[in-house]
């Protein structure tokens, strides 16, 4: 949630979506900046070969479609993965407001810079040729709870897909890391890292 | 080259770099927006395990370090891969100019949005689990010359590293794609795509 940005934005229009309903489809005119209030939206792209892949899953507080402020049309679908409420800050109004408000324009730029840094980190992780390295890197990036536990936001299957891995490769890598003492699984979607049991 | 942005920027300071010389190192105070005038700079990150990897190679006309306008320090090294000249638009001056010039601030945002879209496309490509798919996707993204040839900007080795592949995997995938009639190599770093020789 980029509260500094949201505080400066012109008023939003609220949209309610049923599960499976699309907020927009690739090729639709750009709506504007979207903030998820509740539920979850998936950004989905269809490849040249017709393969659909989830680029991103936006949870409450997340913003998306910021690049659509600068482009006439959307490049992916946004589909509700659960009953959802979103706030849409219309592109034209936001552009108009920013044209006389340098603080707002700069705040949009800062928000995009933060997204760019995050996206680069994701690309770097994906460029790691070994599944175990990708997995460890992604797990290290999760916030550590008290006691050092790290909790997956979703399922291992969702993480595998985010990392460009098959489930099988993910489970094999997990088992290998566990045997090497580099992580320990504890209940559903909770891991401890760097255990390094040398016994 | 984002000429629209560069035209709005406050004056740059020129820096000349010898091959191997660093413009900045991770942890250094953020310099500002950099435009490559000649030569080439590599952005290099060192992982937790001490492995160095090239994140990006910036060629003449390319800009980089735009995220450093919003952060106090650099997160990677920028090293000249050849004798180079760069223009540095200092962060503090750029921020000051943008604070009273909404057109400049918005142009910076637009530039960041374009980088974000490109970085996302890179991450999507890297999420493809098969080497041949990544390679085809990267080759399709190159501009087609007259006659349909596509020319690599660098070496196959550099492309392999950008795609998170070993050279061996890249050459195997190339051979497989060629046998399947999906591409044809023609001289150094030139390919034709979609030949689909069904003979």
Automatic annotation (TrEMBL), chains A, B:
Q: Which InterPro entries match?
A: cNMP-bd_dom, cNMP-bd_dom_sf, Env_Response_Regulators, HTH_CRP, RmlC-like_jellyroll, WH_DNA-bd_sf
UniProt keywords (A-Z) are: DNA-binding, Transcription, Transcription regulation
Instruction: List the PROSITE patterns.
Output: CNMP_BINDING_3
Taking every annotated instance into account, which residue ranges of this chain make up the domain Cyclic nucleotide-binding?
1-87
Leader sequence residues? none
Pfam families hit by this protein: cNMP_binding, HTH_Crp_2
Q: What highest taxon heads this organism's lineage?
A: Bacteria
> Which CDD domains does this UniProt record tie to the protein?
CAP_ED (cd00038)
Cite the SMART domains for this sequence.
Answer: cNMP
Q: Tell me the protein's name.
A: Cyclic nucleotide-binding domain-containing protein
State the organism named in the record.
Craurococcus roseus
Q: What is the lineage of its organism?
A: Bacteria, Pseudomonadati, Pseudomonadota, Alphaproteobacteria, Acetobacterales
């Amino acid at each position: 949630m980029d509260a500094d940005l949201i505080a400066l934005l012109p008023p939003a229009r609220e949209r309610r979506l049923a599960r499976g309903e699309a907020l927009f489809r690739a090729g639709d005119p750009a709506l504007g900046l979207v903030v998820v209030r509740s539920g979850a939206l998936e950004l989905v792209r269809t490849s040249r070969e017709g393969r659909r892949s989830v680029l991103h899953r936006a949870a409450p507080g997340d913003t998306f479609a910021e690049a659509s402020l600068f482009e006439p049309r959307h490049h992916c679908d946004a589909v509700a993965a659960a009953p959802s409420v979103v706030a849409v800050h219309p592109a034209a109004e936001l552009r108009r407001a920013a044209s006389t408000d340098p603080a707002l324009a700069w705040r949009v730029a800062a928000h995009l810079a933060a997204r760019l840094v995050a996206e680069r980190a994701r690309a770097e992780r994906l460029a790691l040729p070994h599944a175990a390295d990708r997995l460890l890197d992604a797990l290290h990036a999760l916030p550590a709870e008290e006691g050092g536990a790290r909790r997956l936001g979703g399922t291992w299957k969702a993480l595998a897909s985010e990392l460009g891995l098959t489930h099988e490769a993910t489970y094999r890598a997990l088992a290998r890391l566990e045997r090497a003492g580099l992580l320990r699984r504890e209940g559903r979607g909770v891991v401890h890292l760097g255990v390094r049991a040398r016994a």
